[in-house]
Predict the structure.
Amino acid sequence: MSGVRVLVGTRKGAFILTSDAKREKWDVSGPHFAGWEIYHAKGSPVDPDRLYVSQSSGWFGQIIQRSDDGGKTWFQPGTPPGEPTTTPEGMPLAESNKFVYDTSEETGAPLTTHQFYDGTQKPWVFKRVWHLEPSLSDPDTVYAGVEDAALFQSTDGGKTWHELSGLRGHGTGPSWQPGAGGMCLHSVILDPSDPGRIFIAISAAGAFRTDDAGKTWKPINRGLHSLYIPDPTAEVGHCVHHIAMSPSRPNVLFMQKHWDVLRTDDAGENWHEVSGNLPTDFGFVIDVHAHEPETIYVVPIKSDSEHYVADGKLRVYRSRTGGNEWEALTNGLPQSNCYVNVLRDAMAVDSLDSCGIYFGTSGGQVYASADAGDNWAPIVRDLPPVLSVEVQVLK
Amino acid sequence: MIRVTLPYHLRTLARVEDEVTVDVQGEVTLRSVLDALETQYPMLRGTIRDHVTGERRPFLRFFACEEDLSHQSPDTPLPDAVATGAEPLVVLGAIAGG
């Protein structure tokens, strides 16, 4: 019988929640990496027991952890147990934690500056990995979206990382600026129909696409309108919070921008707003039903000044029409005195026949629905603030 | 034998429970002690000093013999008491918040 494994990253460690396909009874393991911030954890779609985790700390920097047994044991892939701990020249390893912008003449791009909050220019400085996206075809290949914004790739199971510098070197870097959480590359979407095509999004630069596996990139922000930047329709500078795609229709993407929910039907060439009757179109998460590509989910947040749900009610909004017409999903969710946020990587969908939807809150709850959002129940209620949620279906 | 005291999170990362000891060939300085520490515990590379610049991470401090050594040159000899193992070099996470 199949089951599901939910990977939860929190401010104070990672948790793994497992259940059978009914998704009623859950086992909880963790905290893994107790006390560390886990911005993201995700499994390989090719080898579900291969998990990658971004572990970080303001004090001690970035650590990449890997499991090859579904989270029972972990190791840093650059320092595997039992192998030499230094190079033949005596240099320490731990290369898996090393994210260095590529400025080489052969493959790199010069390290330029980006805009700071006050409009001055600041140099690019690596801070942390926000998102890990394992390849759709190779368990040893994984992408890392980082702050300050750049995309890295590993082709050796996370042992070493190399920047795909064409993105940072796109030329618009000086006009990119940090969002409230930092200047982060937080969304990485791989096109299942075209190995060369990758979509990414950066706060606050916008969405970009490559069609040549990361060598060159183009901004795909036509149709975005952001009142908080000098030119509301600028090519870059938009605070895109998250993007999502249905694997069955890779040219259709949905976006939760700082304000506004949008969609594109031509792989990002043009976007249009589909906020429709949402009570507020500010928010962070957006996701697509596993089997119904026009069914999408958001969690509206009151405003960018009040990062919690509106009216004290935790409501997931679902559109079955690809946007514009939204219904509130509330069964099993608190409808009074609730003031949580749901962050950009904290929603996921499973691919079981009855699509499961999962999300985690800043209050430490992880909610699950086994019926596409009609009914919800908490898996756990009292974790540290949730930063990310991913789900795997296990055969 | 040089004694080094690590903050909790670096002890868990290095999978040690207590103070660690390292051997240093030649002059005992912050640089030579941290080089030896990172060779013995490679998972700590990048967590105390930046991977590329080798600079101390901003929220970490180095203390020994009741002195703050955080801002001295990494090539300055450490106190004799550290070099002889009488006192540990303390790597400390600076407290933020309250």
